[in-house]
Each structure stands twice: as C-alpha cells, then as structure tokens.
Write a structure and sequence with these properties.
- This protein is α+β, with helices and mostly antiparallel strands.
- It has five helices and nine strands.
- The strands form three sheets. It has a four-stranded antiparallel sheet with strand order 1-9-6-7, with helices on one face. Strands 5-2-8 form a three-stranded mixed sheet. The protein has a two-stranded antiparallel ribbon with strand order 3-4.
- The longest helix is centred in the first third of the chain and has 40 residues.
Length: 200
C-alpha cells in the first residue's frame, strides 16, 4: 500500500510459471547454490579490500600524518581539472556523440554499457574529449567515486564529472588509490572533493 502503483490486485495478477514440485525443488537448489557462491565472492572481495588497505599502510604509512616524510603538494599543482559539458537538449547543436556521465563511473572501473548520446559542436570536441590516462571523478552521489579512462577510442564527458589530467610527477592510478583510501577511511567528503576538483 505504500509503494506507488503496487496494490494487491496487481500482485494477484502476476503470472508465475509453476513446474511440478520436484522441478521447483531442483530450481531452488541450484539458485541457492548460486546465491551461496555470490555471497562467498562478496566476502572474498571484502577481505581483499581489507588486504589492500593493509598493504597500503605497509607501503606508504598513514597518508594523513605522512610518517614517511614524503614531499607534499596540492593536487592542483600537479594536474589540471575540468568539469564536463552542461547538456541542454533544446539548445545544443552539432553532431551526436557518446559521452560518459556519473552512472558510468564505478570505483576503479568505467561501465561502457548503455552509453548516452548528446549533441556536441566541433569546437567542443577537443574541450570535452578524454585522453588515455585521464582520471574521472564524480561530483555528486557517491562523492569522489573515480576511475581512469584507459581506452584509445574517442569519448566525451558531461558536467557531473571532473576530468583530472596529471603532469608527469604523479601517476593517475596512484591518485585513484589515494582517493579510494580517503573514501574508505571517511576522509573524502564534499569539502575535500571541492579542493581536489576546483583546481582548473
């Protein structure tokens, strides 16, 4: 009764395939087995994440206190950050091109399924084009969620993303791991993201 468009009549009218009971039991057993495998994989991923955090500490110490005494710079001194294009379907002109938005960016991974298209004028193509090695950081939602563009094919991006392009003093993958460490330790909040991304 609290879910829009869902009522008891709709539930009663849902069609369900009903094989013989022994076949139902066999299907349930197989799905239970699959669910158990998925749950074990989730646990393994969690343990691997903890291992990665431990290795990070072993190699780098606590990044916040900088116990290794490494040189510290503002991120803005070693990269250039640009926000993507603000899209306006009623006013945009030019040819249609695929672009990345926040839903395509997962932690450390870019999902290229179901890409959207929008109009970009020729003058905008260079401004909003990605290069291999660019770090993309989400502005909203899961604040700071980031991944690296590692493709050689053309791709554009829109204004829910910041494109961070580093100079030769820092590796994009290192910066990505640093952001993940900050996020996992509750250090990556809106203020920090603003200091990272508003550096263009």
């Amino acid at each position: 009764g609290v879910v829009n468009n869902l009522n008891s009549e709709l539930v009663r009218n849902v069609q369900v395939a009903i094989p013989p009971l022994p076949e139902q039991s066999r299907i349930v057993e197989e799905l239970d087995l699959l669910s158990n495998i998925i749950e074990k994989k989730r646990q393994q991923l969690s343990e691997l994440d903890n291992l990665a955090q431990s290795i990070f500490y072993d190699m780098f110490g606590d990044p916040v206190t900088n116990e290794k005494g490494w040189e510290v710079k503002k991120l803005g001194d070693v990269c250039k950050s640009d926000l993507g294009k603000t899209l306006n379907q009623s006013k945009d002109k030019g040819e249609y091109h695929h672009y990345l938005c926040a839903v395509n960016i997962l932690w450390g991974y870019i999902n290229l399924n179901n890409l959207k298209q929008a109009r970009f004028e020729n003058i905008e193509l260079e401004k909003y084009s990605l290069q291999k090695g660019d770090l993309l950081i989400c502005e909203g939602g899961d604040v700071g969620r980031a991944a690296i563009w590692n493709e050689n094919k053309p791709m554009l991006y829109q204004n829910a993303l910041h494109r961070v392009r580093f100079d030769k003093s820092i590796l994009a993958i290192y910066a990505l791991y640093w952001l993940q460490w900050l996020k996992n330790n509750g250090e990556l909040d809106e203020a920090i993201l603003n200091s990272i991304t508003n550096i263009g």
